[in-house]
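dumping this here so i dont lose it
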């Protein structure tokens, strides 16, 4: 029997998640405001791709409240707080199909769980939800409650086998894109 979609996504992307986790930590995003600024540039590039996905009308009919979940604005506010400039992404900007987009959303919403750890680290360099780390704040319902509700919505989607495969591919693509932008912000540092 098929796993619920959220579990299939988790199983499919576990290894990739761990490699992203290690890559992010290796850039020591909370060692200084300078390092954190690079992390923000990567988050900005990631959430730019996600913005039209969160606003997609067809997906909004399937997933309640989707268009209120984009965190691009919060990332922009964090960048403004710290006077961080947008990084120009030096590669093709992904444009996922509707069903691949579901995997991108899984990746983005799930990243808010790990953000609990990142938010604690951010506080050590005086960043808070009021200054510089708004995009790492919890959803107003609480991280876990929101995540459970979001997963229920994913699991309630009626997908064909092909659409489900596309969602799994979308999650993989989203993690891969995040990795590429993290590498790019670090590379930019070396070339300055
Ligand atoms: C240093 C960086 C990161 C750390 C330490 C971290 C840590 C974690 C932890 C501890 C969880 C599990 C939380 C729980 O079940 O209570 C989690 C879940 C998750 N994280 Fe991360 N994470 C990091 C970065 C990211 C990034 C950059 C992304 C996406 C671009 C991401 C996507 C996800 C997803 C999708 C889940 C949900 C997994 C599931 O289906 O249960 N994480 N992360």
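and the seq i came up w/
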């Amino acid at each position: 029997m098929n796993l619920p979609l959220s579990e299939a996504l988790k199983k499919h992307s576990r290894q990739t998640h761990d490699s992203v986790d290690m890559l992010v930590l290796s850039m020591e995003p909370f060692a200084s405001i300078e390092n954190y600024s690079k992390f923000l540039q990567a988050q900005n590039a990631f959430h730019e791709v996600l913005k039209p996905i969160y606003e997609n009308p067809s997906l909004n009919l399937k997933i309640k409240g989707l268009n209120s979940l984009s965190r691009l604005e919060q990332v922009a506010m964090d960048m403004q707080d710290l006077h961080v400039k947008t990084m120009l992404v030096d590669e093709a900007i992904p444009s996922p199909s509707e069903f691949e987009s579901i995997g991108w959303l899984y990746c983005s919403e799930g990243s808010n769980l790990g953000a609990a750890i990142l938010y604690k680290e951010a506080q050590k360099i005086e960043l808070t939800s009021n200054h510089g780390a708004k995009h790492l704040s919890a959803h107003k319902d609480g991280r876990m409650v929101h995540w459970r509700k979001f997963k229920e919505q994913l699991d309630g989607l009626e997908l064909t086998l092909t659409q489900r495969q596309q969602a799994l591919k979308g999650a993989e693509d989203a993690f891969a894109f995040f990795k590429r932008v993290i590498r790019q912000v670090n590379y930019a540092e070396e070339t300055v």
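The chain has seven helices and no strands.
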